[in-house]
Design brief:
The chain is α/β, with parallel strands linked by helices. The protein has two domains: 120 residues, Rossmann fold (3-Layer(aba) Sandwich); 111 residues, LytTr DNA-binding domain (OB fold (Dihydrolipoamide Acetyltransferase, E2P), Beta Barrel), CATH 2.40.50.1020. The chain is 35% helix and 28% strand. It contains seven helices and 15 strands. The strands form four sheets. The protein has a five-stranded parallel sheet with strand order 2-1-3-4-5, with helices on both faces. The chain starts with a strand and ends with a helix.
């Protein structure tokens, strides 16, 4: 399998060095490089990379900000943060980055990163295939689903009883999901698809591969970037949830009844 890779770095020599090292990987297809965050978003929209090697500090739009926007893309790319500063490691892994490379790039360390990327892409492909298969059956089952009055959530240390109608949204974070209710947040080892199946009789919708939203709490839908949207919820924080371009049409159909 060919891996489409894009580099975003404002330093020409750094781009050239990383391009050379990546060109030695037989399964890597190098896409045009970006010199700043805004250029990265334009090129990513056009070429749809699977992986972005991203410099955190760049002019016009910093790498962290660009990476957050990339997460709303359909099939959003994996992120590898590359920087000369160790201080940004926490921010990098807050983005669920595959890895964090310090400049100058160590060739041996880069090979370790590429192996992690291959593993993550294989896992993503397997998960997407399973979710697509489950989605076909869950839609058919939704019409006849029994509406449970309570939902039992195992958060790892206890079993919590939750009223499904109080759930605002759920988000995937690594191998767990965070379930946000009107009053509290719970962590569960369920997948988003498993949670969606349990809540099939309620008006929940996958706005993004990482988000499940209760449509009863949607206040407004705001155009955002490249055909994607954000929905604003009716909670006190007016939480905004990304809507990927591929989900937008079905979302509008559901909201219109």
């Amino acid at each position: 399998m060919t891996i489409k890779v894009m580099i975003a770095d404002d330093e020409r020599l750094a781009r050239e060095e990383l391009s050379y090292l990546l060109s030695r990987e037989q399964d890597v297809q190098l896409l045009p490089s970006a010199a700043n965050g805004r250029e990265l978003l334009e090129l990513a929209r056009q070429y749809q990379p699977q992986v972005v090697f991203l410099d955190i500090k760049m002019p016009e739009m910093e790498g962290i900000e660009a990476a957050r926007i990339l997460t709303a893309f359909d099939n959003s790319p994996l992120i590898v943060c590359s920087t000369a500063y160790e201080d940004y490691a926490v921010e990098a892994f807050g983005l669920d980055a595959v890895d964090y490379l310090l400049k100058p790039t160590d060739p041996v360390r880069l090979k370790e990163t590429m192996n992690r990327i291959r593993t993550r892409l294989a896992q993503r492909h397997k998960q997407q295939s399973a979710e697509e298969a489950a989605g076909h059956t869950s839609q058919a089952a939704a019409a006849s689903a029994v509406k449970p009055a309570k939902l039992l959530i195992d958060d790892g240390t206890r079993l919590v009883v939750v009223d499904p109608s109080t759930i605002l949204y759920a988000e995937r974070e690594g191998r767990t999901i965070n379930i946000h209710t009107l009053r509290q947040r719970y962590t569960s080892k369920l997948t988003l698809q498993q949670l969606a199946d349990k809540l099939a009789a309620y008006p929940f919708f996958r706005t993004h591969r990482s988000y499940l939203v209760n449509l009863d709490y949607v206040y407004e839908v705001i155009p955002w970037f490249n055909g994607a949207y954000n929905v604003t919820l009716k909670d006190e924080k007016q939480t905004q949830i990304p809507v990927s371009r591929s989900c937008a049409k079905e979302l509008f159909r559901r909201l219109q009844g």
